[in-house]
Amino acid sequence: MKAPPRLQTLVDEGLIDTVVRQLMSGKEAMVYVVRCGDETRCAKIYKEATQRSFRQAVDYTENRKVKNSRSARAMAKGSKFGRQEQESAWQSAEVDALYRLAAAGVRVPQPYNFFDGVLLMELVTDAHGDAAPRLNDVSFTPAQAMKHHATLIAEVVRMLCAGVVHGDLSEFNILLAHTPGNGDSPGVDEPVIIDLPQAVDAAGNNHAQRMLLRDVGNLRDFFGQFAPVLLKTDYGPEMWSLYQAGLLGNDTVLTGHFERSNADVDMIAVLREIDDARAEDAARRLRMALAPA
To answer: How far apart are CA 281 and CA 266, in angstroms?
Structure first.
């Protein structure tokens, strides 16, 4: 297919040879399958702020640092240059998170290059070499649901230990990839976490705890459809409590149970969480309604 204008620059620079097809158009970006030499990769083109349905909410951008002091001042003032710098920082946040999490051993798409608002990264595939499906498009047996939930809880712990909270984790931004086997092994299907521009710093963002609890709750609710026993688990508060106490590690064994304190409840925080849950449920219903049959 003819390269879109945003990808033509990468073709001219020799970073992409050909554009194969459009893979998807999401709330924050469009993704294309591209050829780079002998490899098939994907190119994620970030939408302009005015075209995105997902906004740069203050909850996500709180305490994000920029190295250039001039850019930081301009962003604080909200000038035209500042808005441009804020947009650039928003886009590069995913790149930074991908490299950081890949180094920590989290299964995310391998990033290759970030140029002119386009992220080149690994094309996550299924057993047939086609683009891997989202969890939302797959049904599971109870045993499979338990296995994938355990894998993802471990990944969330690994992310938290690396100082990162996804902030928008759900069945819609986790892919089910196939890892080839060797010898007599047939290979396995494993989840891959994607879409990280809204990732937040666990230690530097006041909303990180709420986002983590929501992320883990989304995993519980989705896999709980196939393995109802998961609906009784409470991994989010448990891992956050251990993280705050400095006791959480990649090998920490979690129980899925948490005894809550009888201290006074922060009703403002509770009401905000309820509002967030309602908004998330409405967005999920809309995505399901718009998804192709």
So the answer is: 23
Catalytic residue positions? 168, 195
Per the listing, tokens 């057993």 go with: 127
Burial of 135 (0-12, 13-18, 19+ CB in 10 A): buried
Contact call for residues 208 and 60 (beta carbons, < 8 A)? no
pLDDT of the residue at 100: 94
Using an 8 Å Cβ cutoff, are 97 and 103 in contact?
no
Residue 96 pLDDT exceeds 60: yes
User: Are 176 and 194 contacting, i.e. CB atoms less than 8 angstroms apart?
Assistant: no
Residue 57 pLDDT greater than 60, yes or no: no
Q: pTM here?
A: 0.78
pLDDT at residue 71, rounded to an integer: 41
Instruction: Return all residues near 101 (Cβ < 8 A) that are at least 6 apart.
Output: 108, 158, 159, 162, 164, 193, 196
Sequence letter at residue 114: F
Write down the CATH number for the domain with range 5-290. 1.10.510
Where are any strands of DSSP class E within the chain?
Answer: 18-25, 29-36, 39-46, 111-115, 118-122, 164-165, 174-179, 188-193, 200-201
Query: Biggest alpha carbon distance in the chain?
Result: 62
| 110 has a pLDDT exceeding 70 | yes
159-182 burial by CB neighbour count: b if 16+ within 10 A, else e? bbbbbbbbbbbbbbbbbbbbeeee
**Residue type, position 277, single letter:** A
Which of 111-115, 262-266, 271-275 has the lowest average pLDDT? Answer: 262-266
Q: How far apart are CA 119 and CA 26, in angstroms?
A: 15
The pLDDT of residue 72 is 42
Domain boundaries, the chain: 5-290
Q: 1 and 16 in contact (C-beta within 8 Å)?
A: no
pLDDT band at residue 282 using 50, 70 and 90 as cut-offs: confident
